[in-house]
Phospholipid-binding protein, PBP family
Amino acid sequence: MLRSTNKQLIRIKNINLITLFIMAKTVSTTLIVKSSAFKNNEMIPSQYTCNGLNINPELIIEELPANTKSLAIIVDDADASSGIYCHWLVWDILPERIVEEDSVPGIQGRNTMGENRYTGPCPPSGTHHYHFKVYALDSKLSALPPSTNEKELTAAMKPHIISSGELIGLYKK
């Protein structure tokens, strides 16, 4: 009887250890997204907007999971009167810690203007919030064509997201 109880305890301990291991492997960290151009919830300098050079700011990405195969970025404005307005979407970015200013780090999709490029903040009135969302993926999305829009990219990424984070910038004309 004692031997049977010991075997049961060992099985329970092994099951608990396996459960903890699986949980540790499935828990993802949150990416930390920063920029040398502006801080979170602060104003975006005009050079990154329609009133300036209309170029993307540098993005610094920290806490990348070791199994990251590629990154994707979506920049959008949820304050737009017509709904969410996508300013930039790009995927198959090498999993590096910095996305350079004024760069095309991967495959660019079609933004709300129907263009395959970064279009900076340009609100008609008031202060808008621009979400620079970065996704760490466990694979590349090379099969997606450049005609891909935000909704299609989000659907394709969904099963491959292992971590994400965002930086919010504000802009007012």
